Amino acid sequence: MRLLRSVPRAISRPLARLLVLGWAVQMGFLAHKACWQATPVSLAADLSRYGSAARWKGVYYRGDKIGFLVTETVPLPEGFELREDGRLQMALLGATSAAKLSTRVVVDKAFTLRRFAFSLDPGTGPLQVEGSLEGLRLHLSVTSASGTRTEDRDLSEVPALSLNLSRQLAAQGLSPGRRHQVQVFDPATLRNAPMSLEVQAREVVSAAGRPVPAFKVIMRFAGITSTSWVTDTGEVVREESPLGLIVVTETRERATAMAVPGSVQLDLLEAAAV
């Protein structure tokens, strides 16, 4: 697609894996005006919309801290709005880059997708994707530096986004041995593809410094297998991917600690080749 060429494949491929395999890891890259060198005041203002009910997560790559995510579920008359913002520092072609991601998903009371808005700026210009469902028809609007393009797609079933997938599974009931096959839509690449999930036994994992019982869920998508730990209410407290990424629930203070080791050099071209 012509409009998607503004996001290089070396960026979109690892992002797609993060967005889907990491459940809530719909992460993108911080725009220059909101980069890691931004003032504490501007960063605090950007995140001030999140209250005490928000869940904060640290993002690690091969053991090093590279960013954070924050999510929140807001009740609506017709269901819920799921919100997520992400900050991540990476290196692209040897140069350190910062980036920003924002996602809003409106679902019904069963956490079935109704509409969404997704914004990604990898430092080379923003990409915005909006979508809404009318039955099994998906209306899409994609805006980049090249302009705005609209498209309608007829689907075989209502897809999930990674942000509402775990909530939807919890609403259906999580139990060991249960298997699911779902369609997952990735707004970063506009790709709709099947994902298989297998719910395993509960394990106790550390989340924000306390032990939390959560179901271990094995996910397989596009030949990649990743693991998440999901509570009865659908909260993902830990996630691991074969790319070397780990996302774990932390306190707000620990998650937003901005000290990123100088040794962190996540080259997107190298990640895309994995």
Commentary on this structure:
By secondary structure, the chain is mainly beta. It has helices at 9-21, 40-47, 162-172, 252-255, 268-272, and strands at residues 55-61, 64-76, 79-92, 95-108, 113-121, 127-134, 137-144, 147-154, 179-186, 191-207, 210-221, 224-230, 236-240, 245-250. The protein has a 14-stranded antiparallel sheet. Strand 11 and strand 12 form a beta hairpin. Residues 1-43 and 260-269 have low confidence and may be disordered.
Main features:
14 strands; 274 residues; mainly beta; disordered N terminus
How would the blueprint of this fold be written?
Layout: H1 9-21, H2 40-47, E1 55-61, E2 64-76, E3 79-92, E4 95-108, E5 113-121, E6 127-134, E7 137-144, E8 147-154, H3 162-172, E9 179-186, E10 191-207, E11 210-221, E12 224-230, E13 236-240, E14 245-250, H4 252-255, H5 268-272
Antiparallel strand pairs: 1-2, 1-14, 2-3, 3-4, 4-5, 5-6, 6-7, 7-8, 9-10, 10-11, 11-12, 12-13, 13-14
